[in-house]
Amino acid sequence: MHSTATAQPQTERDTEHLTCLTSERRSELKSEVERLAKQAFYRHLISGYGTGEYPDEYQIVYQGKPRHFSLEYAHRFLQQLMGQLYPPALM
What are 46-73's pLDDT values in tens digits? Predict the structure, then answer.
């Protein structure tokens, strides 16, 4: 089973880095996060997903808890969860 530890994903570093992304790159990243979230949802790895309250935020419902991640963190988290980078674990 996945770890239940809850780290604060939205770091100042993530926020600063996102402001440096071009709108085109941000759009591509959001599309990729959406694709990964949809796959994770259909594999029953997450129970929900969608855009966050802020433009550079994505919400993932993991282990019954809604979590608001930066787009980059959501991308890394979903890749890890899907086993594309490392064995699944909450970062």
Answer: 999 999 888 889 999 999 999 999 999 9
In angstroms, rounded to a whole number, what is the distance separating the alpha carbons of residues 70 and 10?
6
Interstrand relation of 65-70 and 57-62 (parallel, antiparallel or unpaired): antiparallel
Rounded Cα–Cα distance for residues 91 and 83 (Å) = 13
Range of the domain at 43: 22-81
Residue 3 lies in a domain: no
Does a structural domain hold residue 90?
A: no
Under a CB-based contact definition with an 8 Å cutoff, are residues 2 and 65 in contact? no
| Residue 91 belongs to some domain of the structure | no
If one counts the domains in the chain, the total is 1
Q: Please, what is the end-to-end C-alpha distance for the chain in angstroms? A: 14
What pLDDT, on a 0 to 100 scale, did the predictor assign at position 22?
A: 83
